[in-house]
Amino acid sequence: MTELETTSEIWKTIAGMDSTVRAPKVMLPEIARRRIYSQPYSRDKMFIEMAKRRPAIFRDVPVFAKGKKGMESKDALIRTLSTKFPKGELSNVQVGPTRIPRRLPVTEIMRRWEGQRAIVGVTDLHIRGTKVEDVIDTKALSDFNVLIRGTYNLSTQEMMTLVIASPGNVTDSHSDDPDGTNHCFFGKKVWLVWETFEGIEAGLEDVERQDVYDAAKFNMTKYMSLPSARWFVVSTGDTLSLPSNMTHKVFTLDYYIGVGSFHVGLPGSIDNLSRWIYHGPLWSLADRKGENVELVDEIARICLRTARRARDGSPGMQERWGYSYLRDGYKHWARNTSTTIKKQVLKHLDFREFVELASNA
Hints:
Blueprint: H1 3-17, H2 28-33, E1 39-40, H3 43-51, E2 56-59, E3 64-65, H4 74-84, E4 90-95, E5 100-105, H5 106-115, E6 120-126, E7 136-137, H6 139-142, H7 152-155, E8 160-165, E9 170-174, E10 179-195, H8 196-202, H9 220-225, E11 230-235, E12 238-242, E13 246-263, H10 266-279, H11 282-285, H12 295-312, H13 315-321, H14 326-336, H15 339-345, H16 349-359
Helix pairs in contact: 3-10, 10-12, 10-14, 10-15, 12-13, 12-16
């Protein structure tokens, strides 16, 4: 099957789940050109993509399911995960083709998923600090994360979540803060991604940054008009690295289970901080009590402190934090950020000092 035929089949499948992504045949060659394919993993490659703010899919990232012999099988992994949650543990879940939001016991979600009789979708089942971490080794997804060096409130933004979905589940257009990774143990998903504010200006809605009362508005012509528009397939064994400036719409093609994480790494930190200072982070949009109003300031201070220590530290410390790619992140920000935004965000003293350090890293 040619690349164009593959694209046609994939688009026919996802259009059956959501008619807004239906594309005319004349558009398929350009859609095929926008696809991102997986690449062999290395820590250096991951940091390069983070610095350049590009989504990337990697093969052979060392994320492991630990435990009994045979853990590599889907059934064994699901059974083990099911037993690690208390019987009364509840999780938000989308149910059915209309994606009705509900809260169900994790054991019930697993039962429905295994029974293959219902469409379910879970993206925010937190496992950090739970017994599930005894089963899944996620060090490669988060050991470069500066959020772990902050206060308790800051550490709550560093999340590790279990991702469970059935074929036919569609996650509406949304963005996440901060940057994220998503490792697929089993299954297959199609992701459509684009730069958040570029999309909003073109008329594509984001349920996290806008008031959306039904499904987020999406249009294929507008989507394909965006320079940032890309798409890809994440399959068994793949690990997605996604910058937080990318809105995404996700379609599940095969029974899926994975693990996701959120982080701030030095290579992409300047772009993240600049966007948060100017537009505000997602966690502040619904923060009516102002409990997290100072988190961006704290992240700026921690990034600056971590970068200084890495600069003056051992090669091993620099490698861990991705210090060598901090200047690449600065260059990307300098080229792609408007003068108006630069003037505004550089008024933030810690951020300005961090930018000066990064420009000479």
